[in-house]
Amino acid sequence: MAYHLPELPFAHAALDPVIGVKTMEIHHGKHHNVTNLNKAVEGLSVPECPNELISDLSKIPAEKRGAVRNNGGGHANHSLFWPCLAAKGSGGSASGALQSAIDSAFGSLDAMKEKFGAAGATRFGSGWAWLGVGSGGKLCICSTPNQDNPLMGSDVVDCPCTPILGLDVWEHAYYLDYQNRRPDYIKSFWDIVNWVQVSKNFEAVS
Fold first, then answer.
1. How many Å apart are CA 161 and CA 82, to the nearest integer?
2. In which band, very low, low, confident or very high, does the pLDDT at 155 lie, cut at 50, 70 and 90?
3. How far apart are CA 84 and CA 105, in angstroms?
4. Cis bond upstream, residue 17 (ω within 30)
5. Which helix (H) or strand (E) covers residue 141, if one does?
6. Dihedral (CA of 184, 185, 191, 194) sign
7. CATH topology of domain 19-206
8. For the segment 17-30, what is each residue's pLDDT rounded down to a tens digit?
9. Residue 95 neighbours by CB under 8 Å, 6+ apart
10. Given phi > 0 = left and psi -120 to 50 = alpha, else beta, which region is 125?
11. Where are the domains of the chain?
């Protein structure tokens, strides 16, 4: 089977000025690229869902595992990322269940944002910040390098969980708009979070 680039649930200009048109065109059209992933899994029997693909990398032959980890992780990460974004002012708010879980785990939404922001800002080099559901159903925050995903498990990452919100902190995600000001990008990110979708992600895991 072949993996396909998902269509954006919004126009390229919808997130401007938080994320500019040119950034969106390059990020979605060029950086979220499934060509190398399809080359890596050619001849293999793999699941249609990229999350399932990366959640058990031991099933991938050793000689292809690195390519699947990198490219499959990138596909899974971005496939979660795009639906969790919405035009400024249209993303709604966290559901009651999600808000209660946030309050229980972090004390408040603002406290969660601060911890999430720190995870993204302190990630050295390229990677992602995550809000996920960990063991016991409790929310957790962590970051991973490169295109790693918390679904890859403790053999690969130090924060295994099921992510419900991710933030791409690779430079290609923000440099045209913010240059080296990653903290500004992270702060602005909250203006375009699609809390309706994040709430659905949480409910699906719960």
1. 19
2. confident
3. 21
4. yes
5. strand 139-145
6. negative
7. minor pseudopilin epsh fold (3.55.40)
8. 999 999 999 999 99
9. 195, 199, 202, 203
10. left
11. 19-206
The SS3 of residue 194 is coil
DSSP 88-103: TT-S----HHHHHHHH
**What is the distance of C-alpha 121 from the center of its chain?**
15
Annotate 119-148 with b (16+ C-beta within 10 A) or e (fewer): bbeebeeebbbbbbbbeeeebbbbbbeebb
> Of all residues in the chain, what percent carry a pLDDT higher than 70?
100
What pLDDT does 131 receive?
A: 98
Q: Is the pLDDT of residue 135 over 90?
A: no
* 147 close to 66: Cβ distance less than 8 angstroms: no
Token reading at 109: 């939404």
Confirm if 173 and 27 have CB atoms less than 8 A apart. Answer: yes
Look up residue 7 and give its two tokens.
């269509």
Q: Measure the CA dihedral 145/7/98/139, to 10°.
A: -20
Query: Which of 49, 198, 57, 53 minimizes the C-alpha distance to 130?
Result: 198
